[in-house]
Task: structure prediction
Amino acid sequence: MKLFPLVLLALILLAVVLISLSLGKYPLPVADIASFLLYKLFGRGVIEAERLRLLENLILEIRLPRIMAASLIGAALSVSGAAYQAMFINPLVSPGLLGVLAGASFGAALGIVFLKTWYAVQIATFLGGIAAVAIALGIARVYRINTTIMLVLGGIISGAFFTSLLSLVKYVSDPYNQLPAIVYWLMGNMAMADRSMIITAGIPICLGILCLAFMGRHLNVLSMGDEEARALGVNVMLVRITVIICATLISALTVVMAGVIGWVGLIIPHITRMITGPDNETLIPASALMGAAYLLIVDDISRLAFNFEIPIGIVTALVGIPFFLVVLKNARKGWH
Amino acid sequence: MALIRVEGLSFGYHRKTVLDTISLSIDEGGGMALLGPNGSGKTTLLKLVLGLLKPACGNVLLNGRNINSIPHKELARLIAYVPQIHKETFGYLVFDVVLMGRMPHKPFFSRYGEADRRIARDALEKLGIADLAERPYTEVSGGERQLALIARAMAQGARTFVMDEPTNGLDYGNQIRLLERLKKLSREGFTFVFSTHHPDHAMSVADRVVMMRNGVILHDGPAEETVTSSSLEELYGVDVRLFTVEKNVHVCVPAVRLCRKTES
Result:
């Protein structure tokens, strides 16, 4: 593991967090935020009572939860993308490969149409994501071929299946209230994340990221091929299942928090690999930091670029695609 | 006691028999080459010897223990797989690839330590590729990759190396350099079991040659006694002559080249 790029990326993330805290309809100078944080954390400095209330409201109540949500989602999507890229020995796969996003979208739509409470919708979303990946694994298992190709095919089939089911739910939904709600969800929407959700989803996301970050060595060996990994004493099935469970868990939770946000899980690990090299011991934690910073920046754009807020899923695609075209030239560098 | 003992081993894919009651034993030290046409079951035999496959019948014993009952990690410290060089993987540094050899020595959630790094560096030096440590594995030559994979096998701590066509995909010079390296290591007490398509390679490195066809062993014995023009013709169905160029140095020459000489 290389420490230098990780420290550098952590500092960049910190800077992006401070800048994001200062940006908004009511801009705050970074210096104010710094003095507020010093006051709150260490009891240093003096701030008038009225100003303090304003800052508390703006920073702690409004901006911080959203920043935490964006960081968690960006980190989760990037880490699961990085882990899948290593496992499937392909730098161009994304966390949705095994159908988790399609399944979660279906679960969300189903919840919006048939369930009453928001809480139930979130549970349906999560279960939909898990179900889609379980079906993909089931398909791979039925054919008894333990290859990544079969897993990918299972993922494609399962994803297509849930996408069709999603269309069905859209078709039967009430076009005045429910359909717009579904469409809005599918565009990705950071405004949904509230504090209690950040805590309930954030803790398992952090655990999942941590678990994947500790599997860097195993991912390295796995990307040399299954047989080689087994000859190096690695329990390939155990590693693969652990990675799939962690990645599915954290990606499904991002959909629960903010709907479907595409492209992050594909692009960020790819760009991070160009900076740190492919060693997963460094790449996985670096992707987490990079993904968090990236989604924060994109969220700032979606909040502030226009008078109204653009769904973040649209911005990640619009920012991500040109970005990707630029790096695509080097996409396979050092690959063959 | 034999290092590896293969007893009545049979294996098949999809009802097609690939190996049919194979028995042989391999002693410690030296090299054993497997010769045989494509589809003769060489690779399957190597995978069974590595414990990567479970036999349909029979056993593979390593130091008297059934290989399929030895835990993966322990097995990896005893016997190492040196695969054919990769076509596709990420551009890990050569050093990081060699470091992978330390996997069977590490608990699940842990990181490589200074001791692991030192062992990896020693292995690179032993194979004379220390200067490649910081280069991406995917950007060095095929021969250098093969050496890196051997260095990794050494970092594993294993003394027995199983290699599947180690010279495959290497240019002529690198083939020779690799064979020299293998010969040197086998003199130091490492055991090599490898498959090859070149009788010359078998004769230059191995002191024992096993010839396989259609999943059975045709001949098994000391290299110079086993590799003969009649056994090669039986194995491959082509006309080959053997010449002795120096004492104990034999080359095999295919009849194609001999014909041309007589015509001109």
Notes: Chain B has two domains: 4-227, 229-264. The longest strand of chain B covers residues 16-26.
